[in-house]
Specification:
399 residues; mainly beta; 2 domains; five-stranded mixed β-sheet; three-stranded antiparallel β-sheet
Amino acid sequence: MVTWLRCSLLTASLAGTACASVYGVGELTPGVKGDSAAGASGSGPLGSVGGSMTSGFAGTSASSSTGGTTFIIGGGGTTFTIGNGGTLSSAATGGAAASGSDEGVDPPSCAELPALCGSSESASRDCCASLEVVGGSYLRSYDGLEGAGWDDPSSPATISSFRLDAYEVTVGRFRRFVDVYPSLPTPGAGRNSNIEADVGWSSAWNALLPRDAVALSRALETCGETNGVESSSSTWTDLPDTHELLPINCLTWFEAFAFCAWDGGRLPTEAEWNYAAAGGTQARVYPWSSTRVTDVDPDHAIYDAPIARVGSKALGDGLFGQSDLAGNVWEWNLDWYRETYRVPCADCAELAGDIDASGRVLRGGSYYNDPPLLRAAARGNAPPKTRDAGYGVRCARAE
C-alpha cells in the first residue's frame, strides 16, 4: 500500500467552494471479526430480493435486535420487519415469504455471516441492524452556524419515518452479493414507496454494471490504479481476510443501488440521509452533537486517517443510532445533485439527471477528508459511474 495525496473526483460543496482539499491515506487498518450472533435456524422458500435469481438465504445463523429496537430484513422478494426478540410483526406482500424461527432470519448479505459490527465485542450489533428514523420536518443542509456556509433556512422538508442501516455496508456483506453475482435487480426494485415518481431500478442500467463476478471483483480490487500503479486503497479482497468488517469502498452508484435492492432495501434520498445525520429538528453540526459544537476529534469519526471497521467510533453515533454518518466513506444517495434545493419537499428526491453530465449525491465525508466535509449539512456529488476509494453505501428500508 502507498500513502497518497490527491484531489478527489468528488465535487464537494463547502461554503461555496467547488472543490475542497482532501487527503488520502492508503494504508488500511485491519478489521477484527466479531463473535457469531447465531440464533435458531429458519427454513422457507429460497429467493433473492428482486426476484432475479433463485439462490437466497435459508434463515440460518439468524440474529435478532436488542434493546427494543426493531430492524428490517429482506428475503424471498419481500421486506419483513422483525421486532425485539425476533418476533415477526409485519410482512409486506408481493413475494414468497421465507419463514424462520421466532429468532428471525438474516437478509441475504448477512446469511451465515459470523461477525458483529461496532466498537468492540461488548458494544456491538448485528452488521445488518436497521434502525428506525422517526419522521418529521426540518431544514435541509442547515445547522444554524452563521457565516459557516450552512445557515440558509430557506429549504424546509418533511420526511416520513423510515429505516436506515446502523452501519455502512461491509466487505463481508458485499462479498455475499459478489458470490451470487450477476444478480441484476428486476425493473422497479429498490423503489422508495413514499415517492410516487420513483420507478426504482431501470433495466437500462444493467449495461452499466460489471458483466460478471470476476469483472466486479477486479474493478473493486484495482480501484485507483493508473497504468498498473496503485494510487488509492481498496478494501476489497478476492478471498476473506482481515478486511471483512471494513466498509466496502470503490463502489459506483449503480453497484450501490444494485446491492441495496438485492438486500431488500434501497438507497436513501438525500433528504432522508440529511435528516438522520442532522438529528431531525436538532440541526446538528455533526451527527453526534446536539449542541452547536464546531470541533471534531478522532474519538468521534474516521477522518484524515486510515479507513477502519464500521462502528468503531461509537461516540460518533447519531440521534437515531447510526454509526459513521460522518467519516469512513462517503455514502451514495438516490438523488441527482442540484445546487439549490427545490421547495416544497415532502418525501422528495431529485430523480432527473444525465448519466454523463450530472452527479449523484454523496454524503458524510470520508477517511481522507478534513472535518468540514464531515458536517451533517455538507454535500458532495460525483458522476454515478465514478469509482473512488472514498465511496461506499448505507442502505435504507421501508418503515
